[in-house]
Amino acid sequence: MSRRTWKNCIIGVALIALVAVAYTPARQFHRFFLTECAADGPAPETELAITAAPVDIERYYESMRAAATGMRLEEVGTTQYANRQWPMYLASPLQPGNEAPILVVAGVHGNEVSGSLAGVKLLEALRNTSPSPPVHVLLPANPVGLAHGSRYNSLGCDINRDFQAFRTDEARTIRAVIARVQPRLVIALHEGPQDGVFIIGTIITPTQLLTMVVTELQSRKIPLATENNLGAPLATPGVMTEGSFITTAKRWLGIYSLGEHTSEYNIPLMTTEIPWSWPSMDERIDAQVTATLVALKQYEGSATPAVAPSTGASR
């Protein structure tokens, strides 16, 4: 074989390897960001190294009810799967007062388990206090996904890509709760593949809020991410703000997540991203609860109102 042939072979192999390396991230980006319903029902994740023990949904509901003692706990939505109803609950203060509240949404992605479990721990932290502003907690936001260790709901849909068409019971329930509660801030509890914690804010989320949360996490020796969940470097460890470029790109690509929905009504969103690779679930839950409580503290004494979205037809 001539040198030129060898050279062409080497170049060909290199190109194939490059395409193979690029193919997986591109395919995963398409699946996780651009495809609303990418699975056949609540399929468990097989590609990503998600570390989570199975969740017994009945025991979860029991612990949720116990944690909500002294609060108002009501069923705000249901979805049907496997010949049963799967409820979603809203825990609220018995006396919410006149201040615009904060809403925590726990467990949009069922396999990001620390978010759902942290919702219960948050109720335990709140039940003997009267936080100002008042706090409402929606949990579990994806009960079928939580019970089956799946990102997706009973239809195989990613709820966090359904805030334009509102095809899923879960997205419609979240929309209705936002319209009813009229929060000044929404906090969504998530996990991701990065090696540390980071907090995401939408274009209208106060930068000071994100900074204060990350500063407190750092003071508690909680590792901060230097890259986001797509591997892009963070300008400030632990903080990602979706500026006008990202916001425009998401809408151009048709990515309608909870953040796009809240931004339409001038409601800031703060998303927690805890590493699902951390082997200790307790540490993951603690990071979720800590970030949430620090965020709540930043709003003490503030009375900035929020505009409520309509509960009418999909936009």
Summary, kept brief:
With 315 residues, the protein is α/β, with parallel strands linked by helices. The chain is built from 9 helices and 8 strands.
Strand order of the largest sheet: 1-2-4-3-5-8-6-7
| Order of helix and strand elements from N to C terminus | HHEEEHEHHEEHEHHEH
**Overall tally of domains:** 2
Oligomer: single chain
For the record, what CATH class of the largest domain applies? Alpha Beta
CATH architecture verdict of the largest domain: 3-Layer(aba) Sandwich
Number of strands: 8
The low-confidence parts are: 6-23, 305-315
Q: What is the CATH superfamily of the largest domain?
A: Zn peptidases
Kindly state the percentage of residues in helix: 25-40%
Key phrases:
single chain; 315 residues; alpha/beta; Aminopeptidase; 9 helices; globular
Mind explaining what this structure looks like?
This protein is of the alpha/beta class. It folds into two domains: 1-34; 41-298, Zn peptidases (Aminopeptidase, 3-Layer(aba) Sandwich). The chain contains nine helices and eight strands. It has helices spanning 3-34, 57-67, 113-126, 143-148, 169-181, 207-219, 244-253, 258-264, 281-298, and strands at 72-81, 84-92, 102-106, 135-139, 185-192, 198-201, 239-241, 269-275. Strands 1-2-4-3-5-8-6-7 form an eight-stranded mixed β-sheet, sandwiched between helices. The protein is globular. Mean pLDDT is 86; it is low at 6-23 and 305-315.
